[in-house]
Design brief:
Layout (H helix, E strand, L loop, with lengths): L1 E4 L2 H4 L4 H13 L3 E4 L11 H4 L1 H18 L5 E3 L2 H15 L2 H11 L12 E3 H9 L1 H6 L9 E4 L20 H8 L3 E2 L13 H4 L1 H14 L5 E4 L2 H9 L1 H8 L6 E4 H8 L17 H19 L1
Parallel strand pairs: 1-2, 1-3, 3-4, 5-6, 5-7, 7-8
Length: 300
């Protein structure tokens, strides 16, 4: 199974752990990723405030490159913001020939043409519907029995395009978490906003939103995410939130493929776990114990 792969800017920088763990897990599961040649920024959230057309042309350029590089292959996108921008173009131009013509008039400067034949798929969609929990479970060598994991989706992978899950009551991560042997932590905060860029513009709002998520996850051993911004907000502000709330609101925050990779026996170095800002001592102790138990079982 092959996919074109669009990592996006965050995964090429501050979220390199998401990039590396995604590649490692998919390779272990037998999936080949072909990184998109000459990819560029999707526009993130800033482009739309500058120009409507720019906000469409930037992701459209990457889709046109995908069609040129390998016609017929779907494009896999781990970052939820990148997924949203690329998916928006796929959906909008599919129903608006005039918009497609407008975009192509700009892309013509690079001899590119978008036909909208490529399908944009989020990592979570591919893991759930095309790889499947059963395949992932078959690759697990270090099952995490007794570990309680809270699935956190955030806003952008399910809204406004509810392609592969219910944006109000998402469940796609449940089977993936259970494939590792862990239990799914029961909560209602999975699709709630983490504050997003409010951490830079209205920090009190961002801290309140991320704080509510951390508070709701008390009792879970870890929270897993599929969005670089969600990951950063939930792991990077725990001290500030704890001081603000006058209570300890610390938890381990992992990218979903980091959890899957650990269960598959991939090393912490292969998953760049050392770059995470919040991996608790209790979680590290449990992982070390499971590793020891797995090694003992292998030699018995």
């Amino acid at each position: 199974m092959q996919y074109l792969y669009y990592p996006g800017c965050s995964l090429d920088g501050t979220a390199s752990a998401y990039n590396r763990s995604t590649r490692a897990v998919l390779q272990t599961a037998g999936i080949e990723l072909l990184e998109l040649n000459d990819w560029t920024c999707c526009g993130a959230t800033a482009a739309d405030g500058v120009s409507r057309l720019l906000s469409l042309v930037l992701p459209a350029r990457n889709l046109a490159l995908a069609e040129k590089m390998h016609p017929g292959l779907d494009i896999l996108v781990p970052c939820s913001a990148c997924y949203l921008n690329l998916k928006k173009v796929e959906v909008k131009v599919g129903s608006d020939p005039g918009l497609l013509e407008e975009i192509n008039s700009v892309l013509a400067a690079e001899d590119l043409t978008l036909t909208c034949s490529v399908k944009v798929k989020h990592l979570l969609e591919v893991l759930t519907n095309e790889v499947g929990p059963e395949v992932l479970a078959a690759n697990v060598i270090r099952p995490f029995e007794g570990l309680s994991v809270a699935p956190y989706y955030g806003c952008q992978c399910l809204r406004p395009f509810a392609v592969f899950d219910d944006p109000e009551e998402p469940h796609t991560m449940d089977g993936l978490i259970r494939a590792t042997g862990a239990d799914v932590f029961t909560w209602s905060m999975g699709p709630k906003c983490c504050g997003a860029s409010h951490m830079n513009t209205k920090m009190e709002v961002g801290l309140a939103l991320s704080g509510a998520i951390l508070a709701a996850a008390r009792g879970a051993d870890a929270i897993v995410t599929v969005c670089p911004m969600c990951q950063l907000n939930l792991e990077g502000y725990q001290e500030k939130i704890s001081r603000l709330k006058a209570e300890a609101l610390h938890n381990t925050i992992l990218y979903l493929p980091q959890l899957l990779g650990l269960a598959m026996g991939l090393t912490e170095a292969e998953l760049e776990l050392n770059t995470n800002l919040a991996v608790g001592a209790d979680f590290q102790t449990k992982i070390a114990q499971w590793s020891a138990d797995t090694a003992t079982a292998a030699h018995s």
